[in-house]
């Protein structure tokens, strides 16, 4: 069995910020990358509100910079996910190897929520359903696409898609956007974007690729043609692996005291434990706090 000083689960904004702090504190952290290295930020085209970047910065660039910065201080990164974790014993398995650690930071983040309607699974990926406009938007040049959701992510996806698409329908289940005012205003005033209010998708249809979506507006079902569907209906925390060990709320977010869990030496950071803010800057901040707490614990 390998014995580590500090293991950080996750390589998104929270995990990498924790890694920078921990490495500078000479804690020799091992980062287990997770199944989406870089986390949610890699899907974000432009981040305008991360302090220190007055002209904004791409999500991929920001997370790559964080990783480079952490590597400069000597972090070790292992690809893959922790398949089993015993928080009480601070033990885990990763790629078949058993790892024990003196301290641990859980920064497993969150993943895009799915609608769970007919057609979503079948057309996911190359068929026309995506959770990432930054990744897939360019495939829809001069096409009509839908963005599902009414939060900041939906607005951001819709605005990004205006670079390629002819027409973007934002399909929202309520009569007002949840997004911040600045994003909502941009969406509502954009000539290529139209919001369909009080409307929910009930099925995604087509043969090999998406051709239309069946929508329901005030209990009336109707079809609207489109070539692509971008889901932006929020996120689900990646915490299933901790079921039965850590208290979680109804949506699966870890319930903690700041960065402290009930297990001494086990800390949490970022979106896996943050149902309120879910920002890159708050994730980075809690990553730094978790690393400082880990340092104090390991003293
Ligand atoms: P969110 O704020 O939770 O919004 C999710 C949206 O999806 C809501 O409008 C919700 O509708 C809708 N929705 C949820 N489940 C649905 C379902 N089953 N069917 C149809 N619609 C559904 O999530 P988010 O937009 O991903 O944002 C998450 C956090 O990241 C927020 O704090 C946000 O401010 C932040 N963020 C910030 C930026 C930025 O500042 N540039 C960009 C992206 C994200 P209801 O409104 O009816 O609940």
Describe this protein's structure.
The strands form four sheets. Strands 1, 2, 3, 4, 5, 6 and 17 form a seven-stranded mixed β-sheet that branches. The protein has a five-stranded parallel β-sheet with strand order 8-15-9-10-11, covered by helices on one side. With 299 residues, the protein is an alpha/beta fold. Helix 1 (13-24) links the parallel strand 1 and strand 2 (30-32). The chain has six helices and 17 strands. The longest helix has 19 residues, at 280-298. Residues 49, 115, 148-154, 156, 173-174, 178, 200, 232-235, 278-279 line the site of NADP nicotinamide-adenine-dinucleotide phosphate (NAP). NADP nicotinamide-adenine-dinucleotide phosphate is lined by residues 49, 115, 148-154, 156, 173-174, 178, 200, 232-235, 278-279.
Task: Compose a concise summary of this entry.
This protein is α/β, with parallel strands linked by helices and about 300 residues long. It is built from six helices and 17 strands.
What are the secondary-structure elements, in order, as H or E?
EHEHEEEEEEHEHEHEEEEEEEH
Low-confidence stretches: none
The beta-strand count equals 17
The class by helix and strand makeup works out as alpha/beta
Shape summary: elongated
Write the layout of secondary structure elements.
Blueprint: E1 2-9, H1 13-24, E2 30-32, H2 59-72, E3 76-78, E4 82-86, E5 91-94, E6 97-106, E7 110-112, E8 129-130, H3 133-136, E9 144-148, H4 152-161, E10 167-171, H5 181-188, E11 193-196, E12 199-206, E13 210-217, E14 220-225, E15 228-231, E16 235-237, E17 266-268, H6 280-298
Helix pairs in contact: 1-2, 1-6, 4-5
Bound molecules: NADP nicotinamide-adenine-dinucleotide phosphate (NAP).
Residues 49, 115, 148-154, 156, 173-174, 178, 200, 232-235, 278-279 line the site of NADP nicotinamide-adenine-dinucleotide phosphate.
């Amino acid at each position: 069995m390998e014995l580590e000083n500090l293991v950080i689960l996750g390589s998104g904004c929270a995990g990498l910020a924790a890694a920078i702090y921990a490495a500078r504190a000479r804690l020799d952290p091992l980062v287990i990358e997770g199944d989406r290295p870089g986390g949610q930020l890699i899907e974000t085209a432009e981040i305008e509100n991360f302090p220190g970047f007055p002209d904004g910065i791409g999500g991929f660039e920001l997370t790559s910079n964080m990783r480079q910065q952490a590597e400069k201080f000597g972090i070790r990164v292992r690809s893959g996910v922790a398949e089993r974790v015993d928080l009480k014993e601070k033990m885990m398995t990763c790629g078949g190897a058993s790892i024990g650690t003196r301290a641990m930071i859980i920064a497993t983040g969150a993943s895009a929520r799915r609608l769970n309607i007919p057609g979503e699974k079948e057309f996911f990926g190359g068929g026309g359903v995506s959770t990432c406009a930054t990744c897939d938007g360019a495939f829809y040049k001069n096409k009509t696409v839908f963005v599902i959701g009414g939060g900041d992510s939906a607005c951001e996806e819709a605005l990004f898609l205006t670079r390629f698409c002819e027409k973007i329908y934002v399909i929202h289940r309520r009569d007002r956007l949840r997004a911040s005012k600045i994003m909502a205003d941009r969406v509502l005033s954009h000539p290529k974007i139209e919001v369909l209010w009080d409307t929910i998708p009930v099925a995604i249809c087509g043969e090999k690729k998406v051709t239309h979506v069946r929508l329901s507006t005030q209990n009336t079902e109707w079809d609207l043609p489109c070539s692509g569907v971008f889901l932006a209906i929020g996120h689900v925390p990646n915490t299933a692996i901790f079921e039965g060990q850590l208290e979680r709320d109804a949506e699966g977010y870890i319930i903690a005291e700041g960065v402290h869990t009930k297990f001494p030496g086990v800390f949490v950071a970022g979106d896996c434990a943050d149902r309120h803010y879910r920002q890159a800057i708050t994730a980075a901040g809690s990553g730094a706090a978790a690393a400082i707490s880990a340092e104090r614990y390991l003293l």
